[in-house]
Design a protein that fits this description.
With 571 residues, the protein is mainly alpha-helical. It has a domain at 432-562. Helices cover 50% and strands 4% of the residues. Helix 21 packs parallel to helix 22 (545-562). The chain is globular, with a radius of gyration of 24 Å. It starts with a helix and ends in a 9-residue tail after the last helix.
Length: 571
């Protein structure tokens, strides 16, 4: 694995991104991450652009509406954002249309992209709520898989005889992987066929071409950076959906120009990987496939690394799919972290991508692909979506990277969002049945998973007034937690408590530094006040400091109208 680490660590700096734009190394600064203030500001401005009228120019179609909704949801985690609710409507309409195999929609050029992005979006939004739609998406994708194992255009001239299209296959595997994450059953043999086909379609030089090697035509048979990212992403996605990707040992490293020092990962106990000792008493899973293995995947990745080394990337400007490629790179790099069991604190490829995107973001609108230097084939709307997903490290968050349970010993335990430790015991979060267990889980951490907020919807508070008050007091204290997800969950729970004593705490949460928490807090205030149509904060653009102040004053005024003796402490 040393060769793989060198190739995809250092070479991604030298080859994949060095020529994408101006870059100056900062000294003694905080490493870039999805939670870095600069990244948050870039993402917030990009979300603002997607909500503006100028974002609609360029490509149109339901797949773009859904991509926008998915990106905005990943950035805000706001189910009620207008762009998210609009995307839900578009996604459900697409599923209904695809349910009729005679529908004209099957003849469209973007049919496979449409059904794939629909599955990705609905799985991220609420896998349980949209289980029926996800099952329909799965069944559609199963029905259109080519005999080779790949996927491609359904009714499109000479592509009808194609063994598969690498780009479309990438998005199908992303859809299937997302469906699996939403706990919808998949056919492992189907995934195995796709995985082995992608292995066989890797060229001798280590890359992939747009069309399968058996029938390439002209430039469609040439290996490119974009298709390397797509092919490598697709094979890692399909393999991970088969549960063959995850290792047992984890390393977190800091990288510098010349030295890489290993250090213990600061993983909260609730997300700690199940140890070999804890797993010893559990029966190991039987391998799903003899042909698809970690060793096979490592060979594929090593060959891909050679392609990167031999083909320094040089962006050609508006004539290519730069942002599509950028998001694909984030995807395969995140899965390589899993394959290696090793993650850098600040990967060089991510730092380079961030620095480039800084120069590409339009200072006036916040959009990407707007400035002449930053334009590409996808248009500004898609460019902004892919930039948001890259900056947020969306794939890494979704797969749980270093916080995954041990697959060999963790039978019955899912990914990081499902695994917790309570009183020193490893448990399945889906089996947590009361608030006390949930509080113990959250109070044992400095961090949390965004998925933990879903616990608030299914766990009842105590009916005994005294016990209920104690629970709400603990949630109130959690509003000061360093973990965003814990603060968000507390804001949601306090709205369910039906106790006006906690209104001041929720007003306090309106000033939370993470722009997603104030929206959750105001929703709870609307519930407690029975003013469901009253909004003080904007949910379709970046929340400003003035917005927060106005919202605080508005809800303080309401609270004083029902409890005139209360005194708010001035800042």
């Amino acid at each position: 694995m040393k060769q793989l680490r060198i190739a995809f660590g250092l070479l991604c700096v030298l080859a994949a991104f060095t020529s994408l734009g101006p870059f100056q190394r900062s000294i003694a600064r905080e490493p870039y991450s999805a939670d870095h203030p600069e990244i948050k500001e870039m993402v917030n401005r990009a979300v603002g652009f997607l909500g503006s009228s100028s974002a609609g120019a360029g490509h149109v179609g339901p797949e773009y509406e859904i991509l926008v909704g998915y990106s905005v949801y990943k950035a805000t985690e706001n189910h009620d954002h207008p762009l998210v609710t609009h995307a839900v409507t578009a996604a459900q309409k697409l599923v209904r249309e695809f349910s009729d195999r005679k529908s004209e929609i099957y003849k469209g050029t973007y049919a496979i992209y449409q059904i794939s992005i629909t599955a990705v979006f609905l799985a991220a939004l609420d896998g349980e709520k949209f289980k029926s739609e996800l099952e329909q998406c799965r069944d559609i994708l199963v029905s259109i898989q080519k005999p080779s194992g790949g996927f491609g255009y359904l009714f499109h001239a000479w592509f009808l005889e194609s063994r598969g299209d690498i780009s479309q296959t990438q998005y199908v595997t992303l859809a299937l992987w997302s469906i699996k994450q939403a706990k919808v059953d998949l056919d492992m043999k189907m995934l195995e066929k796709t995985c082995l086909w992608l292995r066989d379609e890797q060229h001798a030089d280590g890359g992939w071409s747009y069309q399968a090697m058996a029938n390439p035509t002209g430039t469609h048979g040439v290996t490119t950076q974009t298709m390397l990212a797509a092919g490598l992403s697709a094979i890692l996605l399909s393999a991970d959906a088969m549960d063959v990707m995850r290792g047992t040992k984890v390393k977190l490293v800091n990288s510098s120009a010349d030295v890489q020092e290993e250090e213990e990962p600061e993983i909260p106990e609730v997300f700690a990987r199940v140890s070999d000792e804890e797993a010893a008493g559990r029966k190991a899973k039987k391998p799903i496939s003899k042909a698809v293995s970690r060793d096979m995947l490592k060979k594929v990745a090593q060959n891909a690394a050679k392609w990167v080394e031999n083909h320094p990337y040089k962006r050609e400007g508006a004539s290519e799919w730069y942002y599509y490629n950028l998001y694909s790179v984030e995807r395969y790099q995140s899965f390589l972290e899993i394959l290696e069991g090793r993650r850098e604190v600040e990967p060089a490829w991510y730092r380079e991508g961030v620095e480039t995107l800084k120069t590409y973001q339009d200072p006036a609108t916040g959009g990407f692909g707007v400035l002449p230097i930053s334009q590409d084939k996808g248009g500004a709307q898609a460019a902004t979506c892919f930039s948001i997903l890259f900056l947020l490290r969306t794939t890494q968050k979704a797969i749980g990277d270093l916080k995954e349970s041990n697959n060999k010993g963790g039978q019955g335990l899912g990914n990081v969002a499902d695994v917790a430790k309570i009183d020193g015991k490893v448990v399945d979060k889906s089996k947590i049945t009361n608030v006390d267990e949930m509080l113990k889980m959250l109070e044992s951490n400095k961090e949390g998973s965004p998925d933990d907020k879903q616990l608030a919807d299914r766990i009842p508070l105590e009916s005994d007034p005294k016990a209920r008050k104690e629970q709400l007091n603990r949630f109130s204290r959690m509003l000061r937690s360093p973990s965003y997800s814990s603060r968000a969950l507390a804001s949601k729970i306090l709205g369910r408590g039906d106790d006006l004593d906690y209104v001041p705490d929720l007003i306090y949460a309106l000033s939370d530094p993470d722009s997603r928490v104030p929206l959750i807090a105001e929703n709870s205030l609307r519930i407690l006040s029975r003013q469901m149509t009253s909004f003080a904060l904007p949910n379709d653009r970046l929340i400003t400091a003035d917005d927060r102040v106005k919202a605080e004053r508005r809800w303080q005024q309401w609270y004083l109208s029902v409890r005139p003796d209360y005194r708010f402490i001035s800042n």
